[in-house]
Amino acid sequence: MKTPKNHILVIFGASGDLTYRKLVPAVFDLYEKKFLPNNFAILGLGRTELSDNQFRDKMKEGIEKFALKKIDEHLKVKISDFLDKLFYYAFNTDEEREYAGFKDKLLGLDKDLGTNNNFIFYLATPPSMYTTIPCHLAKYGLNSEDEGFSRLIVEKPFGYDLETAKTLNDSLFRNFREKQIYRIDHYLGKETVQNLLVTRFSNAIFEPLWNRNYVSHVEITSAESIGVGSRGGYYEGSGALRDMVQNHLLLLAGLTAMEPPALIDSNSIRNEIVKVLQSIRPIKEEEVDKYVIRGQYIASSVKGEKVKGYREEQGVDPESRTETYVAMKFFIDNMRWGGVPFYIRTGKMLPTRVTEVVIHFKPTPHHLFLSHAAITQQQNQLVIRIQPDEGLLLKFGMKVPGSGFNVQNVNMDFHYTDLADVYLPSAYERLLHDCMLGDSTLYSRGDAVEAAWKFVKPIQDAWANNKGSKVHGYPAGSWGPDIADELIEGSDLTWRYPCKNLANDGNYCEL
Questions:
Q1: Is residue 453 part of a domain?
Q2: How far is CA 453 from each of CA 170, 281, 460, 502, rounded to the nearest angstrom?
Q3: Element (DSSP H or E) covering residue 215
Q4: What is the mean pLDDT of residues 372-378?
């Protein structure tokens, strides 16, 4: 990993949970690995009144809890040195006139530390501030790159629908150029997500098969084993479609289905992702029920313990129709994927936490082992596990030892944990470091965000306009509504289930 230029990372909302749990621990891991420049600082901003030392004490606690390394005496010294690079400034980020004091503080630090007018502004704030803060920064000239760089990191959600996404983009573009804006999606920081490109484009055994001639269907799953917990109030206004499908899963689909880029650089890769998103066949509002299943977890027993249903969670409307599960079928209308169904699903309170892409290959055209019906139903699969236990799994048929031609499916797998001497950065660590280097490859571009929202819009409209559309209940600890299996085209085909239903069968997971 390269060393970035000297700079200051400015975090708006620095007294919040994201900074405490993710951002500062990730930056410390970069510091500990010597991936940061010599002249570097974090300036935390917020309305909460904190001194530099109070901010440092809070961040020290976050580092000790959430940094990747176990804390020993050597790391305690490192933490102490790192904390000296942390500063805090309290002001009302809504008020334009108060940015004068902030600018003075920032430029004073820049002069003292020799960071050469290089600034990264991270918006770890509520989305309502995504238009306000960049506007105030621009009015005080902090968007200028005349003497150094000025970059803006924006957390999701990037709007709540197509209209608000366009409004947000228009607002950002009035003050910052696209190359200065980094829309962060932590899923794209996963090592295995990036390995999708390498698996496809550096291996002659995969790329020739990665098309409609050899692939029967593609399946993308992002499952969570927890419910909404104390976030019920937030989740009521979001739901799985906004929270997961529009961003994480459609971007994974874009990476999985994209054409080979001309170069391995930000523009080339992101151009190809946008082409995929723009090629997804629109789902008509009147056909949403045919292609999209939405569900909501209900009370159940998981491993002998009673679990609340979604409507019983704190902050949730007792008659809520907010989806905690979405399964969907769509098609990508281009030369590579014409006619190949893509299936995506996500949900809360499923049997396990797992994110994976599964390439289902077509069966052989001539079945020599027809007497073995089971094997003809089990197509070859390439499983790309994003999280946890990152790795690859290839499923194929092998002869069982002994007389005759008895066949069974076997697994050939690789786990990143097998590379004991290789350091795997966390998602935020990788993405923050990329922004420091000015590499936006793994960040969402404005046109990609709008293309994803454009595809999702008819689904949102159908659910909003048709109050009779079904929300299927599914027991907590199961794999969602049974009706989702009917989305999968083909006789005896279903979703891949890496784990059994905990509500019924106990715990077993495969990679």
A1: no
A2: 15, 13, 10, 34
A3: strand 215-223
A4: 52
The CATH number assigned to the domain holding 394 equals: 3.30.360.10
Report which of 13, 253, 266, 288 is spatially closest to residue 126, judged by C-alpha positions: 13
Give the count of domains, the chain. Answer: 2
Instruction: Give the integer Cα–Cα distance in Å for 467 and 285.
Output: 13
For residue 374, pLDDT over 60 is answered with no
- Distance separating alpha carbons of residues 245 and 345, to the nearest angstrom: 8
More confident residue, 469 or 367: 469
Same domain, 325 and 394: yes
User: Which DSSP state fits 440?
Assistant: -
* CATH code, domain with 150: 3.40.50.720
Paired tokens of 309 = 């249903």
Residue listed under structure tokens 């947000």: 168
The whole-number pLDDT of residue 157 equals 87
Q: How many residues does the chain have?
A: 511
Contact of 25 with 62, CB cutoff 8 Å: yes
Examine residue 177 and state whether it is found in any structural domain, yes or no: no
Do residues 346 and 355 lie in contact, with contact meaning Cβ atoms separated by under 8 Å?
A: no
In the structure, what pLDDT confidence band is assigned to residue 499 with cuts at 50, 70 and 90? low
For 66, the token pair is: 């959430």
CA distance 450 to 458: 14
Q: How much is the pLDDT for 137? A: 97
For residues 363 and 489, state if they share a domain: yes
- What phi and psi, each to the nearest 5 degrees, are found at residue 140? -105, 15
Query: In 3D, which of 442, 427, 450, 120 has the Cα closest to residue 266?
Result: 442
115-126, pLDDT tens digit by residue? 999 999 999 999
Mean pLDDT of the chain: 88
| pLDDT, tens digit, 9 for 90 and up, residues 192-220 | 777 788 888 888 888 899 999 999 999 99
Same domain, 319 and 403: yes
Confidence label for 150 from pLDDT (cuts 50, 70 and 90): very high
Q: Are strands 292-298 and 325-331 parallel, antiparallel or unpaired?
A: antiparallel
The pLDDT, as a whole number, for residue 439 is 92
Residue type, 255: L
Given the residues 7, 136, 248, 360, the one annotated as active site = 248
Tokens of 141: 């000239």
Helix (H) or strand (E) holding 325: strand 325-331
Give the model confidence (pLDDT) of 38-86 as tens digits: 999 999 999 999 999 999 999 999 999 888 667 777 788 899 999 999 9
Number of neighbouring beta carbons within 10 Å of residue 56: 23
User: Is 248 part of the annotated catalytic residue set?
Assistant: yes
- Terminal C-alpha separation, the chain: 29
Inter-residue contact 273 to 448 (CB < 8 Å): yes
Rg of the chain over Cα atoms, rounded to whole angstroms, equals: 24
Predicted TM-score (pTM) of the model is 0.89
Residue 500 sits in which domain range? 188-244+282-425+468-505
